Amino acid sequence: MANNIIPLTELISQFERLPGIGKKTAQRLAYSILEQPPEYAERFADALLNARRKIHFCKVCQSLTDLEICSICDDQTRDRRIICVVAEPRDVMAFERTREYNGLYHVLHGVISPLDGIGPDRLRIKELMARLGSGEIEELIMATNPTVEGEATASYISRLSKPMGIKVTRLAYGIPVGAELEYADEFTLARALEGRNEI
Amino acid sequence: MANNIIPLTELISQFERLPGIGKKTAQRLAYSILEQPPEYAERFADALLNARRKIHFCKVCQSLTDLEICSICDDQTRDRRIICVVAEPRDVMAFERTREYNGLYHVLHGVISPLDGIGPDRLRIKELMARLGSGEIEELIMATNPTVEGEATASYISRLSKPMGIKVTRLAYGIPVGAELEYADEFTLARALEGRNEI
After folding, report:
1. pLDDT digits (tens, 9 = 90+) for B36-56
2. The complex's ipTM?
3. How far apart are CA A20 and CA A37, in angstroms?
4. Which of B5, B65, B105, B186 could link B70 by a cystine bridge, Cβ 3.0 to 4.6 Å?
């Protein structure tokens, strides 16, 4: 069999572990690496190692950064009274693409999901509460996905924050119910920001 | 902007260079690397470097191998009188999956395509001719893609090989197994009629 070339089989299986990449696509990608000059594989390998080693969570907002405090938290021109609370780091990038939002972010790293054994203590909620304690924050925009778990997480955080005198809002249903925030286009996201309602 | 995390931007751009991977997919894949344990990125990087460094072309058939001579060319149980001529190394894997073919292979690494400036000298045709010179080969199965370039390449090699007393055959044209006749194009159907066999 041609497929007992061990380094090739290994490369295919690494591609196959990526989300949404099936066997056939993994094979095609692996072959394409072999068809390119060796420098490409080297740069790709470097990029993988660099990204994984240098990128960690921002001490403040828990989003991804290669600095101690991310460039958004560190940007003094942004509105420091509003925090947009999202589930995943990639959701931050989705909001940044709208160019409509100028506040800060907080990344929860998941949503409350009892069925998967994920309780509030598994999320970065206490880090969010610590930020609210500074007294500087006036509004939290809950921007978790419009799913049951996302809603439950939003209302859980809302219940904790309101007693601290903080206005808590939710993204408007401009976003299609059941969809993934990551794939929403910038116009829909911008409208959802505009029409946000108090919970 | 969140996307000025340089190691992340670099990783996304490496994924984007892969065939069939767009900007959104590249982002999703890059984030998925960051969500996995660091060992995954390390194993992926190793797999890339290993594959690219260890895999080269078989001295005989020009297919991919991590040995000097690939396991197919080296397999003494295979029929050494037949060579199946294909355009790309991945075509070898496609034939091997059929488990119906027990001869040898020769990989051309492309097809003759004057529009792209690819003449016969850019392909591994002289390596094929050298193999025919041994006198052991009785049949060449031309298995290039059924496109204008694939056909031209097949007939070019056929013209060179026939004077050496070698039988040159071409893969049968017809309707793919399991396909709906209704959706077959007229050229395929015409060729399927032409090449009809008695049941």
Report:
1. 899 999 999 999 999 999 999
2. 0.77
3. 26
4. B65
User: Do A143 and A49 share a structural domain?
Assistant: no
Cβ proximity of B89 and B107 under 8 Å: yes
Q: Which pair of structure tokens corresponds to residue B78?
A: 């295979």
| Domains: count for chain B | 2
Helix runs in chain B, H state only:
6-16, 23-35, 38-54, 89-98, 125-132, 148-161, 186-194
Instruction: Evaluate if residue B176 carries a pLDDT over 90.
Output: no
Q: Vertex B187, ends B183 and B190: CA angle to 5°?
A: 95
CB B89 within 8 A of CB B64: yes
Residues A132 and A35 in one domain: no
Taking an 8 Å cut-off on Cβ atoms, the answer to whether A50 and B7 are in contact is yes
Contact A51 B34 (CB under 8 A): yes
Are both A8 and A29 inside the same structural domain? yes
- At which residue do the structure tokens 């949404």 appear? A20
Residue A1 has pLDDT above 70, yes or no: no
Containing structural domain, residue A25: 2-54
